[in-house]
Write a structure and sequence with these properties.
The complex is a heterodimer of chains A (338) and B (414).
Chain A: E1 2-3, H1 6-20, E2 24-28, H2 44-48, E3 53-55, H3 60-72, E4 76-80, H4 91-98, H5 101-104, E5 114-119, H6 134-138, E6 144-146, H7 151-163, E7 168-173, E8 199-200, E9 213-216, E10 221-225, H8 229-240, E11 244-248, E12 251-253, H9 257-267, E13 270-277, H10 282-294, E14 303-307, H11 317-320, H12 324-336
Parallel strand pairs in A: 2-3, 2-4, 4-5, 5-7, 6-7, 10-11, 10-13, 13-14
Antiparallel strand pairs in A: 1-8, 6-12, 9-11
Chain B: H1 47-50, H2 72-97, H3 111-120, E1 126-128, H4 134-139, H5 144-152, H6 185-198, E2 205-210, H7 217-229, E3 233-239, E4 242-243, E5 246-247, E6 269-273, H8 277-292, E7 298-303, H9 324-327, H10 333-343, H11 349-371, H12 397-413
Parallel strand pairs in B: 1-2, 2-3, 3-7, 6-7
Antiparallel strand pairs in B: 4-5
Helix pairs in contact in B: 2-3, 2-10, 2-11, 3-8, 5-11, 6-7
The chains are: A alpha/beta (338), B alpha/beta (414).
Chain lengths: 338, 414
Amino acid sequence: MSQMNMIQAINSALDVLMEKDPTVIILGQDVGYFGGVFRCTDGLQKKYGEHRVIDAPIAEGGIIGSAIGIGVNGLRPVAEIQFADYIYPGLDQIISELARLRYRSGGEYFSPVTIRAPCGGGIRGGQTHSQSPEALFTHLCGIKTVMPSTPYDAKGLLISAIESNDPVVFFEPKRIYNGPFDGDPNKPSIPWSKHPAGEVPKGYYSIPLGKANLVQEGTELSIITYGTMVHVAQAAVNQAGISADIIDVRSLVPLDVDTLRASVEKTGRCLIAHEASKFSGFGAELAATVQEECFWHLQAPIVRVAGWETPYPHAFEWDYFPGQDRILAGIREIMESV
Amino acid sequence: MTWKSRLHIPHPSARPGEAPDFSYLSLSEAGAVAQPAVDAPASEIEFLAHELVRVLDDDGIARGPWIPDLTPGQLLEAQRLMLLTRQYDDRMHRMQRQGKITFFMQSLGEEAVSIGQGMALEPDDMLFPAYRNQGLFILRNTSLVDLMCQCLSNTRDMCKGRQMPVMYHNVKGKLFSVSGNLATQYPHAVGWAMASAIKGEDHISAAWVGDGSTAEADFHHALTFAAVYQAPVILNVVNNQWAISTYQGFAGGERRAFAARGLGLGIPGIRVDGNDLLAVYAVTRWAAERARSGGGPTLIEHVTYRGGPHSTSDDPSRYRPKDEWQAFPLGDPVKRLKQHLVNAGHWSEEQHTALIAELKETIITAWKEAITYGTMTDGPSLDISEMFDDVYEELPDYLVRQRQQLIELKGRRS
């Protein structure tokens, strides 16, 4: 075991797999010589060479499009999109090609591309460096969508994502690259070395896609969330002094419905939290799923805590970010319902 | 003060009722364009993007430095494959008109591109076709029955009923899955070629788009990546003058040849007579050799003409002169190769007529077999449970449930 932050854990996942499987290659802007703007590929080009860690032109559609062709030719590409906010020029390649290639070719062609993209706010990134576009991808048939909330999960899930013969979009909440974040920007930041999930095995391990993580167990309420909001929710629950299940979805598609159902059937109350805007956000799918699966167990309406229906504003970042106050308000709303 | 700015709206040279006018096409004499060494620096061979490489002259005589070393036997085989493609297209077009299939796209007038290029490439080279490259599928031994079954979406459809007609693929033949989204295959071909180079193999890839889709971002992404990594790829633009009703001027073809699109990136461009099988073959061999020997990508523009409608859903008489193809200065690729072979004493009109009759029979026989695997009205039918397969490598639980729901629902209905 070793102490790692999420960047180191991602780097370790890539390193372990590149060592194990010579077909794994990395492609993206600034990923090679420089090691990535967030340092996730630091040292890998030096170790594995320029043919396996490839600096790419600034053309996300080209990165994803060529990665598909690379994958069809028997390699296993990991494409880095520098910010999730920049993924849109590659959307047609993801939607029309990557997601549906296996299906449209009767199962005869596929391309095992993993797309990594740092997402989320809290880094003073304004509306072009803070987005959480995961819902767009969960709507596609043929893509898996993953978002870890700890270094331990990031490494294990990324290894599974790269090893999967299905394409995976792997979102990395960049606010928690260096440490867990409880939603209060005024508190001194805490490093991952202070968190149990900052203990990461040095070698190979994997966490299956499609399994949620019950982060903490309780009896009165189920909080379903993912990414940075897992840590905000934990802080809010502590502050509220209630006994709650906190479920880190981790894999949005495929979704671990069994874990959600078991929890909500037990507690009878459900709060869903994510950073992305509420309307048509992934929380809508979670709420609909809980309603379909657990309606007769619900003692209160499901509450969603999410970003406002505006772009992510630079000056009002902490008013936009659904911090502890908003989760606490949501908890009160649920707990006070009869 | 006079306002000098104006918005230029491109106009084709002729509309319905007007005389066809191809004066906008710049042509070179057959045999007039030099053939540079395959390792010539891109900066020294820019003329290839502006001239027009032609081998066959108007009398069907092969001229100049680009005459390929094709034997009469190979030329006769090329002719057979072009004719087979044309007969296949003709039959399937009529089958759509009779309501037997939902949709079809012919490659009428463009057969030399697929056949000439397919012959010039090696069997292990990977091809990323557009939807008018059925000739590549035929050349690479995709059976006519398989092509027809794809168009019928029947039990033998390689796509398992998931794609509209003409979106074929052939894994064994190294033919990628045809997409309905245009030019998306261009960066795939570049990526495939990059992987080939990464693996240290000498297989190259080739991709095709039409003149219209050169406007897509994927076209430009592919060119950039191909240039940056010097990927061993041949990028083809089949300039058949029309993208449905949109003439090539709307893709920016008015002022510069499509072959010149790569020059700014240092990608050699070759503008070739796309209706001249010998020229198409020769430039493709040249580009393939260049790619295989580490010289990187080549962009080839095939100047041709879309002889038929865009698809069975299109009526070109509404936007272009009916006799425009007849006036096209580069003629019909099938007639031109025939003229060459007849002139050279390798072929005759009688043999030609007999071959067409034989190919028609072949196609009728194939169609009769294809419909035994199911039609739009008669069984056998695809198993509906397969609808849920291949979304992912393994069927997830929720799709197992959805499949069950559908099967139960259908059970209740019947």
